[in-house]
Amino acid sequence: MITPGKHLLIDFWGSRFCADKKVIEKALKTAAETCGATILKINLHEYGEGFGITGVAILAESHISIHTWPEISYIALDVFMCGDCDASGAVEPLKKIFEPKEVKISEHFRGKR
Fold first, then answer.
1. Of these residues, 7, 18, 73, 82, which one is catalytic?
2. Which one of the listed residues 63, 67, 88, 108 is annotated catalytic?
3. What span, in angstroms and rounded, lies between the C-alpha atoms of 17 and 3?
4. Which of 25-39, 51-65, 99-113 has the lowest mean pLDDT?
5. In this structure, are residues 73 and 13 in contact, taking their beta carbons and an 8 Å threshold?
6. SS3 content of the chain, % helix, strand, coil (to 5)
7. What confidence score (pLDDT) does residue 111 get?
8. Are 61 and 85 in contact (CB under 8 A)?
9. Domain positions in the chain
10. Annotated catalytic, 62?
11. What is the pTM of this model?
12. Residues sharing a CB contact under 8 Å with residue 29, sequence separation 6 or more, in sequence order
């Protein structure tokens, strides 16, 4: 059955670099490139020193979003890709960069009845 795309909800606990904008931008870029996605724009917002970052990599094939809570070393990621890109390819590069101690991944196939 053809579906519009795979959507991953990823939780990282015990993560590094939760407040490092440069590392987060690199992580989104690396994850997208690993999946063969086309990056249209990366937009990140910092909430201030020691606070979280929220942002999105807008892709021709959909998006990767991130929300961080450095005070509890937690990162929430949302990876949705369609076409020839497989969202699952984003997981390992993200894990390698953020080094979470615990990971939870929920996989959903959008458009599937």
1. 82
2. 67
3. 34
4. 99-113
5. yes
6. 25, 45, 30
7. 82
8. yes
9. 5-110
10. yes
11. 0.93
12. 39, 42, 57
Q: Which residue matches tokens 């490139």? A: 33
Return the pLDDT at 1: 53
DSSP-assigned letters across all residues of 32-69? HHHTT--EEEEEEEE-STTS-EEEEEEETTEEEEEEEE
Joined together, the tokens standing for residue 14 give: 């015990």
Q: How far is CA 50 from CA 5, 102, 110, in A?
A: 35, 22, 35
> Known catalytic residue: 15?
no
**Annotated catalytic residue within 7, 15, 18, 62:** 62
Token pair listed for 15:
């993560």
Q: Is 18 a catalytic site residue?
A: no
Among 71, 95, 89, 93, which Cα is nearest to 11's? Answer: 95
If you average pLDDT over every residue of the chain, what do you get?
95
Classify domain 5-110 by CATH number: 3.60.90.10
Nearest to 6 by CA among 83, 60, 75, 58: 83
pLDDT digits (tens, 9 = 90+) for 40-87: 999 999 999 889 999 999 999 999 999 999 999 999 999 999 988 999
